[in-house]
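Running this now, will post back.
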Amino acid sequence: MTVDDTGSGADADGRVDPPPFSTSPERNDAQGAESDGNPLALRLEQLILGAERRYTPFQAARSAGVSMELASRFWRAMGFADIGQAKALTEADVLALRRLAGLVEAGLLSEAMAVQVARSTGQTTARLAEWQMDSFLEGLTEPPEPGMTRTEVTYPIVELLLPELEEFLVYVWRRQLAASAGRVVQAADDDEMVDRRLAVGFADLVGFTRLTRRMEEEELGELVEAFETTSADLVAARGGRLIKTLGDEVLFAADDAGVAAEIALRLIETMANDETMPELRVGMAFGTVTTRMGDVFGTTVNLASRLTSIAPRDAVLVDGAFAQELIRTGEAPVSEAEAAEAAAAAEKEGEEPPTYRFALRPMWQRPVRGLGVVEPWLLTRRDGDQR
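Update: finished.
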């Protein structure tokens, strides 16, 4: 794991070839601020990073005790641009490399898993950082001092928000990690930690493509933000997990089919009561799902996506496995006829009749691309159930 001095790229004349991390001498993000000589950009970077530039990539890798090849893999996985031989790295970069490499050396993570950790963290935080900066600057209608540009306002905003946002980020991450760890320890066996049985659903705005041609960009952005925000709040409040948003579509999951069913119907009802929102359709499936880097994959996910595409407007379609799970857990009757029989039998015995939250109606079987013939079920609430 340590760097071999003789393998550092230096030849017999003492020249140092560009390390693997350097792919070309072209300008990139890290070099841009330096080559432009923008003092504000450099001050802002130092404020956020809390340290000055001290190392080239090769120097940082050597100080961390890792090979240049592994350092390059970590940096690229985190989403950082190649910076050639620029002295643009700080003590924090060295420490991050040392920590990742230390996890591998201790046997706590494989090298491939360490790269995955770097990639998932980089992708998530990159999106978060872009959103935060855009939102803060967009929300700034008037600068604190007359004549100040948005560029000049960025520094004091970051200076004020940085410590608070840092603490809040760590708090939310710990909360989410605790929730995820709780789900893992409740898994039935080790295989279920990766390949788990989940209810997966897609909620899709109807006619979104036509809307993009009719609406102004700002209006469209506000609609998408409202849809994503409403969906995220509903999914979280009902005990589900928002996997990702795709503009006009959201993907969510839940451990329990009843929870997912409630989320789906709440989404339909909430959007239907909002005149500014297009109609919605939802497709859900229940079964084994592979989880990777916070995302979900597999036939169950593909089936949920296909069901969404054929779902009627303002309606929820589920697959047979989802329907059977609701029946098994007593959330829905096999049929309305059976529900009536059970109610009559209970009344005859002087007992409380069974209560069901949801109703299921089989639809016509149909071929679904790549998945064969499926029988969708229309999911609705039972009459009078408005929980």
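The two ends are 58 Å apart (CA to CA). More later if anyone needs it.
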